[in-house]
Amino acid sequence: LAPFTKLELLNLSSNVLYETLDLESLSTLRTLDLNNNYVQELMVGPSIETLHAANNNISRVSCSRGQGKKNIYLANNKITMLRDLDEGCRSRVQYLDLKLNEIDTVNFAELAASSDTLEHLNLQYNFMYDVKGQVVFAKLKTLDLSSNKLAFMGPEFQSAAGVTWISLRNNKLVLIEKALRFSQNLEHFDLRGNGFHCGTLRDFFSKNQRVQTVAKQTVKKLTGQNEEECTVPTLGHYGAYCCEDLPAPFADRLIALKRKEHALLSGQGSETERLECERENQARQR
């Protein structure tokens, strides 16, 4: 492809491309579509603006340094950390979709070179148990971390203080940092499907009344109900969310999760737990 010195758009989707694909020599290429292939490693040139590479086996992406903003769509691949995208790929990103990958920890500091450009970050359906680093994402509008394994919504989430849309639905959240503050422009706040300590919701919402109002509006819009439906009948509510008074929140929740894991592995899990696992597996296979 090297002779195509003025090529700006290349569509190679739904082919049988595999292993390493080096397109770095296409210095004028702005839009690349590689959806539905078997590529494992990808290299692109300095002019890339839009990269569609969902449904591959990509574990590494390299981008030559360029000045333009980037929109990168890498859903359903084998990315394990943000640094699997090199510095060029993490610089001046506007839209980053890493849904359905294998990421277990995210460090927001690794997106510092996109702090003034990043608008949309999708990390749904990974395996994240920890979020690190604080960067002020000045233009971030949407943050989707739903269907992960996060237990604590900590101070690192101040990086997303200006968002209008945020979801941490279906995690393992127990506690929220009560000092967190969000923009008055917040329109969508979804924390359904977690295992909160009631005290943490009380502390957080007492300092964030506007967020509590938006949370109730979000649940009403999505479910038609004023509160989320609790999967465990004994749970109570604070605001729109299910919660439980836990003397030792992290320890109590860890014990409950271990018991659930053991029951599922031994075939003794409840019907609700089995259906929950099936739903998650089906969603990850879409």
Outline:
The chain has 286 residues and is α/β, with parallel strands linked by helices. It is built from 4 helices and 19 strands.
Word description of this protein:
The protein is of the alpha/beta class and 286 residues long. 20% of the residues lie in helices and 23% in strands. It has helices at 198-207, 209-223, 249-265, 271-284, and strands at residues 9-11, 18-23, 31-33, 38-44, 50-52, 60-63, 70-73, 93-97, 105-107, 120-122, 130-132, 142-144, 152-153, 165-167, 175-176, 188-190, 196-197, 236-238, 241-244. Strand 18 and strand 19 (241-244) form a beta hairpin. The longest helix has 17 residues, at 249-265. It is elongated and about 65 Å long.
Q: What is the strand and helix layout of this fold?
A:
Elements: E1 9-11, E2 18-23, E3 31-33, E4 38-44, E5 50-52, E6 60-63, E7 70-73, E8 93-97, E9 105-107, E10 120-122, E11 130-132, E12 142-144, E13 152-153, E14 165-167, E15 175-176, E16 188-190, E17 196-197, H1 198-207, H2 209-223, E18 236-238, E19 241-244, H3 249-265, H4 271-284
Parallel strand pairs: 1-3, 2-4, 3-5, 4-6, 5-7, 7-8, 8-10, 9-11, 10-12, 12-14, 13-15, 14-16, 17-19
Antiparallel strand pairs: 18-19
CATH level 1 name = Alpha Beta
Classification by helices and strands? alpha/beta
* Form type: elongated
CATH 2nd-level architecture: Alpha-Beta Horseshoe
Return the average pLDDT rounded to an integer: 90
Oligomeric state of the chains present here: single chain
Order of helices and strands: EEEEEEEEEEEEEEEEEHHEEHH
Name the beta content range. Answer: 15-25%
Number of strands: 19
Count of discrete structural domains: 1
The CATH topology is: Leucine-rich repeat, LRR (right-handed beta-alpha superhelix)
Continuous helix count: 4
Largest beta sheet: what is the strand line-up? 1-3-5-7-8-10-12-14-16
Sheet with most strands: 9 strands, parallel
Share of helix among residues?
10-25%
